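Exercise 7 asks you to align residues with tokens for two separate proteins.
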Amino acid sequence: LQLVESGGGLVQPGGSLRLSCAASGFTFSSYAMSWVRQAPGKGLEWVSCIDSGGRETNYGHTVKGRFTISRDNAKNTLYLQMDSLKPGETAVYYCAKDPDDGIGVLEYDFWGQGTQVGVSS
């Protein structure tokens, strides 16, 4: 199994970034996926999730309306479009695989290595 995040970088407050997570070694289209982040010195924070078919999504209250999760099962890739970024959202962003296909219960059985996002003027 492999999950490889990309797309991180430094952006000014109010800016946008699009993260990608390339999956391999398993049947990507059979599993729900999530984005989770960890700010410096803080614990893990769940950001968003999407079911295996891309029909159902959910978001943390701090990002709802600004972030959009999506997936392309033909390309085995998960995305996170982040708009109107705030300084407090500087963090390492991880994609995580769910052991199930739905988003009713959030569980993770495999993680990527993360991509760093910095939001600063």
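Second protein for Exercise 7:
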Amino acid sequence: QVQLVESGGGLVQAGGSLRLSCAASGFALDDYAIGWIRQAPGKEREAVSCISSRDGGAYYTEPVQGRFTISRDNAKNTLYLQMNNLKPEDTAVYYCAATIATMCHAHEMSYWGKGSLVIVSS
């Protein structure tokens, strides 16, 4: 049974940091494109960051470039998102998601976690 379980969200002041973790079971992370999708209140889902299954490269949406870092520990089958210099506009539910496609898509992932809430206060 495939499961993705996120942890590490919470409340942080602007400029602070958080690290999200996603423990995967039932499949091997490196067989899929895997990443983080977020949804802010009243907004569409946005693919924040992804590790491609084609080349293992890390991709980021422009608003988080230079502040967020995605990484993967294959031995632990766990995905991470280190978020630094957080801004109020980063407030959202962050979902860990995986896809059999080579790249993440905000609305077309194969597997989803339940989400982890990140709130950044100004």
